[in-house]
Amino acid sequence: MTYNIEMLPREKVFRDPIHNYIHVQHKVILDLINTKEFQRLRRVKQLGTSSFTFHGAEHSRFGHCIGVYEITRQICDNFQRNYSTKKPGDGLWDDNERIVALCAALLHDVGHGPYSHTFEHIFNTDHEMWTRKIITSPETEINQVLRQVSDDFPEKVASVISHTYPNPQVVQMISSQIDADRMDYLLRDAYFTGTKYGMFDLTRILRVMRPYKGGIAFDYDGMHAVEDYVLSRFQMYQQVYFHPVSRGMEVVLTKLLQRAKDLYEHNHMNGFEMPSLLIPFFEEKVIIDDYLLLDDGILNTYFTLWQSYPDEILKDLAYRFLSRKPFKSAKYDHKTKHLLPEIADIVESVGFQKRYYTDTNTSYDLPYDVYNPNSSKSKTQIEIMQADGSLIELSTISRLVNALTGKISGDERFYFPKSMLIKHADDIFSDEYDKFQQHIHNDKII
Amino acid sequence: MTYNIEMLPREKVFRDPIHNYIHVQHKVILDLINTKEFQRLRRVKQLGTSSFTFHGAEHSRFGHCIGVYEITRQICDNFQRNYSTKKPGDGLWDDNERIVALCAALLHDVGHGPYSHTFEHIFNTDHEMWTRKIITSPETEINQVLRQVSDDFPEKVASVISHTYPNPQVVQMISSQIDADRMDYLLRDAYFTGTKYGMFDLTRILRVMRPYKGGIAFDYDGMHAVEDYVLSRFQMYQQVYFHPVSRGMEVVLTKLLQRAKDLYEHNHMNGFEMPSLLIPFFEEKVIIDDYLLLDDGILNTYFTLWQSYPDEILKDLAYRFLSRKPFKSAKYDHKTKHLLPEIADIVESVGFQKRYYTDTNTSYDLPYDVYNPNSSKSKTQIEIMQADGSLIELSTISRLVNALTGKISGDERFYFPKSMLIKHADDIFSDEYDKFQQHIHNDKII
Amino acid sequence: MTYNIEMLPREKVFRDPIHNYIHVQHKVILDLINTKEFQRLRRVKQLGTSSFTFHGAEHSRFGHCIGVYEITRQICDNFQRNYSTKKPGDGLWDDNERIVALCAALLHDVGHGPYSHTFEHIFNTDHEMWTRKIITSPETEINQVLRQVSDDFPEKVASVISHTYPNPQVVQMISSQIDADRMDYLLRDAYFTGTKYGMFDLTRILRVMRPYKGGIAFDYDGMHAVEDYVLSRFQMYQQVYFHPVSRGMEVVLTKLLQRAKDLYEHNHMNGFEMPSLLIPFFEEKVIIDDYLLLDDGILNTYFTLWQSYPDEILKDLAYRFLSRKPFKSAKYDHKTKHLLPEIADIVESVGFQKRYYTDTNTSYDLPYDVYNPNSSKSKTQIEIMQADGSLIELSTISRLVNALTGKISGDERFYFPKSMLIKHADDIFSDEYDKFQQHIHNDKII
Amino acid sequence: MTYNIEMLPREKVFRDPIHNYIHVQHKVILDLINTKEFQRLRRVKQLGTSSFTFHGAEHSRFGHCIGVYEITRQICDNFQRNYSTKKPGDGLWDDNERIVALCAALLHDVGHGPYSHTFEHIFNTDHEMWTRKIITSPETEINQVLRQVSDDFPEKVASVISHTYPNPQVVQMISSQIDADRMDYLLRDAYFTGTKYGMFDLTRILRVMRPYKGGIAFDYDGMHAVEDYVLSRFQMYQQVYFHPVSRGMEVVLTKLLQRAKDLYEHNHMNGFEMPSLLIPFFEEKVIIDDYLLLDDGILNTYFTLWQSYPDEILKDLAYRFLSRKPFKSAKYDHKTKHLLPEIADIVESVGFQKRYYTDTNTSYDLPYDVYNPNSSKSKTQIEIMQADGSLIELSTISRLVNALTGKISGDERFYFPKSMLIKHADDIFSDEYDKFQQHIHNDKII
Question: Is D147 touching A (CB cutoff 8 A)?
Answer without folding.
Answer: no
